[in-house]
Amino acid sequence: MREETVYNIKNEEETNAFGAELAEKLKPGDVIAMVGDLGTGKTTLTKAIAKGLGIEDVITSPTFTIVKEYDDGRLPLYHFDVYRIGDIDEMYELGYEEYFYGQGVSVVEWADIIEELIPEDAIRLNIEYGENEGERIYRCTF
Amino acid sequence: MYILAIETTGAYASVALTDGDKILAHVEGNDRFSHLQNLMPQVQQVMADAGLPLGDVTAIATSVGPGSFTGIRIGVSSSRALAQILDILCVPVSSLEALAMRAADFAKEETIVCPMLDARRSQVYAGAYKLVDGFPQEVVEAAPYTLEEFMNAVDQFDNVLIMGDGADSYGEKISAFRDKAFEIAPEEIRYQHANTVAILGANKFNAKIGVPYEQLQPEYMRIPEAERKLKEEQAKKCQM
């Protein structure tokens, strides 16, 4: 079993630093499976990762499009928000295989909704609220 | 008779034309998963190479899956469109059977050919075939399996030849599930190609297995949802 690492994040600067560090390690075909309640900052963290990949386009939540592609960084970024996926077949219809197993990095918000499609070697990232305002706990399995 | 064959279920799309006897022309793509932009130009190129107008094509043979979900959709919908405008029949061909046929010159008589396509997460779309006069006879049902299930199913055979991208994804894991020796097909014949789709398609067309375009159906070979969830839960329990 892979081990979980816990990060206590104090503020948005630390989120940005975490995202930048993670982005440096990413390679083609990596999938980051994010799980966390509304407002825990999944999209904020995705923005930090995107910045770390050198992406300058503005990252906006793909809630209505399910996936958005960003091609101006070190690696292509495929940003998924699968909150509105009703049936797993929709993932096949939008061609998830070409994204997850392609040449870019996939970040998946609400990954637990499509658990059965998340690759076995995906980076797991669970986000929880911390004790104080603005604090977060990241539980990561790399 | 001219059969135009389309194979888009793997990483590289290919198109071939046969007169029912030999391959007259074929072309294969170089870019991974770029079927949508490559397929129609490939069709044009094959017809040009053969020196024939598209209107001379008798039927379209299509590899309908299993394989890449997006690739299957592109192949089936493009074939339907071509068949509709040309007013000709479609011939559905199993990607696994056509792939098995690529081993015809390579496999020994007693060899059981096992095309195995990566269905992700240690699962494969696979079947086992004996080649008789170059054509595949199914000896293990083509279906979705976990790698372990499939290796158990072919355990009864002494000589197996593994083909397809499953060999790349699970090469090392295969030996864990199989005590007997096995062989992996060399790269030149390991993956799907329209040439064997054409030959098998022509054979099926002669056997009157042609359908109107609207009846050409994809064969995704997906495991039913309920079954997938059950397997998922069992897999989780194993990990604990």
Briefly characterize the structure.
Chain A has about 140 residues and is an alpha/beta fold.
The CATH topology of the largest domain in chain B: Nucleotidyltransferase, domain 5
- Provide the domain count of chain A: 1
Output the helix-strand order of chain A. EHEHEEHHEEE
What share of residues of chain A is helical?
Answer: 10-25%
What strand line-up does the widest sheet of chain A have?
1-7-6-2-5-4-3
Low-confidence stretches of chain A: none
Could you say how many structural domains of chain B there are in total?
2
Task: Calculate the mean pLDDT score of chain A and round it.
Answer: 94
In the sheet with the most strands of chain B, the strands line up as: 3-2-1-4-5
The largest contact between protein chains, plus residue counts on each side, is: A-B, 13 and 14 residues
The level-1 CATH class of chain A: Alpha Beta
Overall SS class of chain A: alpha/beta
What does the model show?
Chain A is α/β, with parallel strands linked by helices. Chain A has a single domain, classed as Rossmann fold (3-Layer(aba) Sandwich), CATH 3.40.50. Chain A has helices at residues 12-25, 42-52, 89-93, 96-100; strands at 4-9, 31-36, 67-70, 77-81, 105-109, 123-129, 136-141. In chain A, strands 1-7-6-2-5-4-3 form a seven-stranded mixed β-sheet. In chain A, a hairpin with a 6-residue loop joins strand 6 (123-129) and strand 7. In chain A, helix 1 (12-25) crosses helix 2 (42-52). Chain A is globular. The N and C termini of chain A lie close together (11 Å). Chain B folds into two domains: 3-95 and 191-225, Nucleotidyltransferase, domain 5, CATH 3.30.420; 97-190, Nucleotidyltransferase, domain 5 (2-Layer Sandwich), CATH 3.30.420. Chain B has helices at 35-50, 69-86, 95-101, 147-153, 165-177, 187-190, 194-206, 225-239, and strands at 3-7, 14-18, 23-28, 59-63, 89-93, 112-118, 123-132, 135-146, 160-163, 183-184. Chain B contains eight helices and ten strands. Chain B has 240 residues and is of the alpha/beta class. In chain B, the strands form two sheets. Chain B has a five-stranded mixed β-sheet with strand order 3-2-1-4-5, sandwiched between helices. Chain B has a five-stranded mixed β-sheet with strand order 8-7-6-9-10. Chain B is globular, with a radius of gyration of 18 Å. The chains are: A alpha/beta (142), B alpha/beta (240). Chains A and B meet through loops of A and helix 8 of B.
